[in-house]
Amino acid sequence: MRGPQWLDDGMPHIWLPYTQMQTVLPPLPAVRTSGCDIHLADGRVLVDGIASWWTACHGYNHPHIREAVSAQLGRMPHVMFGGLVHEPALTLATRLAAILPGDLERVFFTDSGSVAVEVAIKIAIQYWINRGVSGRNRLLAFRGGYHGDTLATMAVCDPEEGMHALFSGVLPQHYIVDLPRDEASFRALETLLSESGDEIAAILVEPLIQGAGGMLFHGPDVLRRLRTLADRYGVLLIFDEIFTGFGRTGTMFACEQADVVPDIMTLSKALTAGTMALAATVTRSHVFEAFLSDNPLHALMHGPTFMANPLACACANASLDLFATEPRLQQVARISAQMTEELEACRGLPNVRDVRVMGAVGVVELDAIADMNRLKAALIALGVWVRPFRTIIYLTPAFTVRPEELSCLTSAIAQVIRDGA
Ligand code: PLP
């Protein structure tokens, strides 16, 4: 069946993400979304198992969010944030400060997760410069982590391995080590901090789940021990909650499960429930205070054109309304229980290395995926939108996913594995 004309016309001009354009298969033309469904131009409807890269936590086109954005569109779609402020941004900052733990209360808005992490890195390095401490300009981050695709954020992923390896020679050098999980690796980390701590501005970690780097889980104790080490060696602690924030791990923020407050936190993705581009870098008061000075250079010199876009902030405020009025965390608990039960069907199948679930994240890890294109096509043929990567097939559905939709997703995964993924 022929696709729409705009697909034929546009494909020679578009450059797609994470795609070898020489061999790319025609992508699916999406024309509409609703609930957990993606409607394609040819009339097919796919159940979305990953909520558009983990953003659409209330499902697509929630009427409350639509109305909030439409109302804001009529009032003020955008205004620059330099020298001007507006109600949607200040209300959102106030509300984030109220729901974030501890004194995480100073919010800097940007427009993508990568930039939120870049700002966190800049803040961490400048924090020390402003305090008159020189040489603390490296980050300590963990293998398996993913913090974005910009130059600064590639450098805190694993620059030697994985998709950014080509850039390893040109990126700033940080300390990238294994995430400590046992006594020996905590001792090794402590040795590194005691020998090189005066070069390190901050420890950066995705709390509880390293997402795009491999959907790797760790326990809250790891976070508590990182907090202890950060305090002992006087380095800042940054939690990147761009994937885990807003309920995904079962609590509103993953750090709550460890009862740990980082010095800096990054947020994006479900912040606007996937409707608009918005991100936030939030700091504790002692971090912010290091930027208060008579020296103009001590200000944070950053200001993306579309930062704090009023439509995006209105959208995020509407999303927070829904967290307050609808039973999202109970839904996450229900999804977690259902995925735990249903994905169990995959354990023991040939090629399955591990099955794991945390909150509304379900992962089936294989030993190998024989043919990624064939696997993706098989999932689509079963009516689901799931995007496996490397050896990982994962689900991060909307929290509003209906039990029968979730069953459709879990059974499709079991079937493609049985059919020889
Ligand atoms: N940090 C984490 C934990 C992420 O999962 C992502 C995106 O997947 C990013 C940062 C980068 O966000 P963005 O794609 O909006 O730049």
Structural class: alpha/beta
Widest sheet, order of strands: 4-12-11-10-7-5-6
What is the name of the CATH superfamily of the largest domain? Type I PLP-dependent aspartate aminotransferase-like (Major domain)
General shape: globular
Q: SSE order, as H and E? A: HEEEHHHEHEHEHEEEHEHEEHHHEEHEEH
The CATH first-level class of the largest domain comes to: Alpha Beta
Number of domains: 2
| Oligomer kind | single chain
CATH topology of the largest domain: Aspartate Aminotransferase, domain 2
Query: Radius of gyration from the CA trace?
Result: 22 Å
- In terms of per-residue confidence, which ranges show pLDDT below 50 for 5 or more consecutive residues? none
Instruction: Please tell me the overall pLDDT.
Output: 96
At CATH level 2, the architecture of the largest domain is 3-Layer(aba) Sandwich
Discrete helix count: 14
**Unique ligands:** pyridoxal-5'-phosphate
Beta strand %: 15-25%
Number of strands: 16
Q: How much helical structure, as a percent, in the residues?
A: 25-40%
Q: Biggest sheet, in brief?
A: 7 strands, mixed
Q: End-to-end distance, in Å?
A: 26 Å
Cofactor: pyridoxal 5'-phosphate
Site (Participates in the substrate recognition with KAPA and in a stacking interaction with the adenine ring of SAM): 18
EC number: 2.6.1.62
Enzyme class: transferase
